[in-house]
Amino acid sequence: MNLNDTEKNKLIELIKAGEKLPKEYIYKLFSDEEDVFLFWNGRKEDVTNIALPFHSIEHIDEPRKESVKAGGNFSMFETDFRGRQLKGWTNKLIWGDNKLILSSLNNGPLREEIEKAGGLKLIYIDPPFAVGTDFGFNIEVGDETVEKKQSLIEEIAYRDTWGKGISSYLTMMYERLKLMYNLLSDDGSIYVHVDWRVVGFLRLLLMDIFGESNFRGHIIWRSMTPSGFKGQTSLGRSHDDILYFSKSDKINYNPQKIPYTKDYLKERFNKIDENGKFFKDEKIGSATTQETIDKLKNENRIYITGSGKLRIKHYLDEADGYYMDDVWSDISHENSQSDVRTGYATQKPEALLERLIKASSNEGDLIADFFCGSGTTAAVAEKLGRKWITTDLGRFSIHTARKRLIGVQRELQSTGKDFRAFELLNLGKYERQFFMDDLTNGKRKAKEDLYVDLILEAYKAKRIDGHSCLHGAKAGRFVNVGPLDVPVTQTRLMDIFEECRQKLYTQVDVLGFEFEMGLTPQFIQELKEKGVAITLKYIPKDIFDKRAVDKGQAKFFDVAYLDARVHHAGKGIQIELTDFVTHYTQDDIEDVQQSMKPGSKVVIDDGQIIKIEKDKNGIITSTKLTQNWHDWIDYWAIDFDYLSKPEIIKIKNDDGEVEEKWTGNYLFENEWQSFRTKKNTTLEFKSVPYEYSKPGKYKVMVKVVDILGIDTSKIIEVNF
């Protein structure tokens, strides 16, 4: 500590008085540790070190043949009777907060799987800066477009970290980058795609974590048309920045060649022949034989100068590019009409990721992207024969990536190339428990009370006492808050129904994170006919951030319902999707109409997508765009034998040993699916025939993902 007695006494007086400390004192406190160090308001050295179990939501592996039928084998993997991968690394698509995911990957049982897979060799991330539109997306309904607003947990997770300015952003990134550093193998590398406004900060941050000696380059990707114009007061922008670091000096690097640009050829290959090809000429050496010269003439490889001298031509195909440097101008953004374009504003071109992945990994290596977006890193990794992990906070991002990765599986299958299965994971109830434990320091009774109060406050309901099943009331309706960590069951609804009937209550809202599969519209209708109208509503993850609740922006939406029919087809069955009902509301139509200027706006209200138009005279008209339930379906999938694979999670016990535990649920094996893409917006509403290996009773699960990215499922019993 480089402080004299006078400075120490002054420092103590300032602390006692609650005054700010002069910055030079802060620096002097650490002067013995290092000459230069990074400091910002809120910097903490410790990182999250919890290990939450991962839930397997879905397992996806395209059958290794054209139709879904029992029997057969394919690929280098050991497969089951459907030709689906049984052993070996399964790729991971993980939905949730990447801080908790990274901590759980570092400290949990999956770390061992990562090490068995060869370790994590490469990380590419494109973290958001001022998120805003990153989580919003557009939905096309016919010729109209409606914006799906980002959820508050998506917005708050990053946007509100700017409450203290750049320091909040650095704190958010610092912890995540430290966790990534710990997860990388010793010969691993990281590429960080950085916003131009924070590139200087992030470069210093990365040097602090990875070490100055492991800084490998600052890539300038000139990806845009120059944006300069006369009269502007700053430089026009035409490039992105990518920072490249290794974990140690054991770097794995495969130099890639960049094709020559036309401008480069004009400069270096400064002549052009009669076929329009650039070339460079070279003197003919004295040792060159006449036979060689004649051969070159026959190949049109001899150039005659103005003075009649002979020279040898060197074309582009003889100089196939230069080893890549730190300025790239040969890769453009994905064209808006590209087959792989997903609609994400921040989507990066596959060519960019292909170059990075080839440069810093080898076939069979494991790579990761913890800000998944539309899934470009994982898609390219799969095509290049790499294993992958990718994560995102946004529900719709995960859904977009899932469709894209199924498309990659289909593409590779059609060309006879191998591919790996992937699983969709999340932290489920354990993530919710972590938030509540963090708020209450793990005190169970306090947690239960705070949890109910938290949900009621977000729902704008008042707490009531003297009831066994009901917790609150709102606008003439009573409210039940479902459990934190298990689904709302039919038994729970019957208990609520009995209490309501005894007290002559007729309307109740039941709020839950998950609902038992047996809660059908028919069951809810039966309770209504008996005198109690029950409405089921999902609790959004947003309620765990008090800022969302304070703003009144945590939205609860009604549970959707689907219906499907079983058709017997020869020796198999087919599933037909026959109905889908939702009451989702994103907009308050009255507020929209009052605030509208002349023009049009597309809104979502009570399960309908509506176009509102206002003319210059203030006359408002509305047109319903969702003509039938088909318009709401973006994706649907089937597991023909849902009870065949129990969901087993791995948990570390107090002794650090890994234990396997059945959650009581089953793994959804995605055996058939149909979904919309930008290239093909049509859907199949009847599956291909499926044959069971033996007669019996089976549970079929049908899963629908609507155009908002929300899952709805139903189980159907089949006798075959």
Please, could you describe this protein's structure?
Helix 3 (about 100-105) runs parallel beside helix 6, helix 10 crosses helix 11 (about 375-385) and helix 13 (about 430-440) packs across helix 14 (about 445-460). The chain has 18 helices and 36 strands. It is about 25% helix and about 30% strand. It is globular, with a radius of gyration of 30 Å. A hairpin with a 5-residue loop joins strand 10 (about 270) and strand 11 (about 280-285). With about 725 residues, the protein is an alpha/beta fold. Its EC number is 2.1.1.72. It holds the Pfam family N6_N4_Mtase.
Sum up the structure in keywords:
single chain, alpha/beta, Trna Endonuclease, Chain: A, domain 1, 720 residues, six-stranded mixed beta sheet, Rossmann fold
Briefly summarize what is shown:
The chain contains 18 helices and 36 strands.
